[in-house]
Design brief:
Oligomer: single chain
Structural class: alpha+beta
Low-confidence stretches: none
Shape: globular
Number of strands: 7
Order of helices and strands: EHHEEEHEHEHE
Distance between the termini: 31 Å
CATH topology: Aminopeptidase
Helix content: 25-40%
Length: 153
Amino acid sequence: MTTTCRKATLEDVDSLYELIKGYAEKGIMLPRSREVLARQIDSFVVAEIDGEIVGCGSLCQLGAELVEIRSLGISEGHKGQGIGSKLVSYLEGEAREQSLPKIMALTYEVNFFRKNGYDVVDKDIFPEKVWTDCVNCAKQHCCDEIAVLKMLN
């Protein structure tokens, strides 16, 4: 089984929606409507095995030098196969192409990101994130996600 990563297309919206919905129902990812996914499709990448979408992730530019990995998820039955690392590597390549030197994420999977070269940092160093998203989040004052950062060369 070969995993292929590629940019998402509008045909992928339903698969993205279902994958993200599963994580959102567990409270570990923000939900995204089909409409929002369609509007933001250019920021998403997917991982496929034999034409089936088994993972996704997206990038959101937060400032002139900072981009965030969002909506990173792998379908049940495909976790632990290196698909997440492939998606992160693909997203890092996208950030490099845009000459963005810093890439961050808010996560519960700290060890995964450490394995991929990220360092744990204080969330407060990302005012771009706080004023873009956190200000509207239900967990704003009790956020339990961990911030990670990687400098891209």
